[in-house]
Structure formats: structure tokens, C-alpha cells
Amino acid sequence: MADNVYGMMASASSKLNLKQFEHLTGLIRETWEKAAGDRLRERLLVLVGRIGKEAGQMKAKQVNAATIRYIKTKLTSHFNADYT
Prior knowledge:
By secondary structure, the chain is mostly helical. It is 85% helix and 0% strand. The chain contains 4 helices and no strands.
């Protein structure tokens, strides 16, 4: 079920204007922060990847790159905290 929803969201993302697209990625970031487990975060990574594939426009590349950098930073700090 979630895969279908993610597929629809990814397809629709290519039709959003920049403000709407930034709002969507902001919601993804908020969900990432509130995620209780790794499973949800894995699903969010899949969603970000699908959005990147669907929305080949410049806005997708710019905002997705920022979102990926943000998630990478959070992952790095998460794993560093686990091993210290």
C-alpha cells in the first residue's frame, strides 16, 4: 500500500511548483526527524529517490540534493552516536 502512495506522490511531485515542492520536501524532513525507527527512514529514502527519478526538472535536483545532504548529515550523526 505504501509503495502505491509513494509512487503517486513521486509522480505528482513533477507537477508541483517550486513552493509546493519545497513544502513536500519539508514534510519529508519533519517526518524524518520524528521517525521512531529505521524502517520509516528507509521508506523515506526510497520516497526521496523516487521523487528524484520522477521529477527530472531542475527544482527536483536542487531540492532533492538539499534533502539528501540533510538526511546524510542526520544519518552520519545517528550512526556516530551509536558507536561512541
